[in-house]
């Protein structure tokens, strides 16, 4: 009998999910180990929580298989460093689903970044960060500014000083 | 061809879809008209139009053929005089607007999760996933991003090999790719040992069942 965990979003909506789905979030796993099964998540809105639960449901089946020694070693190694290197999702169908999942505008994507980071769901964090990085890669500064609405708060002198200090970056690309 | 979608979150829940094949200046007028209508009523917060506005303006500029020039023109919409200029100028306008009736309200953009509003450690993690060649662009974007890029550089890029994007090309020596500062080899040395001369001084340590 699957144990159910209750998640309460910031705007008070309640979601009941299976234990294995919820436990993809390390935070939730730790809380349930110490306290009870009703977990308030005041910083996560319902809209975002629904999407996160959808992701976790989809990936719960993959994670339920026991880890092989090599992958558990990789997991241990990656969790010890602060910058973790993502393990690529092996199943192509799941990867395709992930790609569809992240077809969101920047604003919604950032909502998921923050929620996944807060809930510490490793695979989802990697997925969304990779997606954002892909939106930055290969672009010129003006393009990046336009896409993310970034204001240039440098004065021309500051910009010149930065270029000089960081000449390593401006060598032939 | 420019495809524009503007979703307006009004009490009536109407959505407005425009398909425009015509020139950009007309496009800008249309967007300005819709924005002034919205700001005039100013009921609910309309989260989506503001970032959408700039995004679509960005894509509008890209899809304009090279020959079309943006004209600086003014037009009077209602009682407001709106200056229409090159869409690239919209970003600074968005940033510096203090009155709520201007295009692309800054406050709504801040609320809708700006890249720079992300916590610094998350930002650094994102930047660690870009390529080495993108770092120069990121350093000059803004102070927040510059700081995050420096941190990413110290934590990650200083220890990672740049991935070369160049298609490997054959040069005169027949080598596929030449290292940037490698010493020039005029003559590739061949091994002076040959299997035959070695057989007198070698012995098989682990004889295999299958003899070659």
UniProtKB/TrEMBL annotation, chain B:
Which PROSITE patterns does the UniProt entry name for this protein? FBOX
What are the residue boundaries of the F-box domain, all occurrences included? 112-155
Q: Which InterPro entries does the UniProt entry name for this protein?
A: F-box_dom, FBS1-like
- Name of the protein in its database record: F-box domain-containing protein
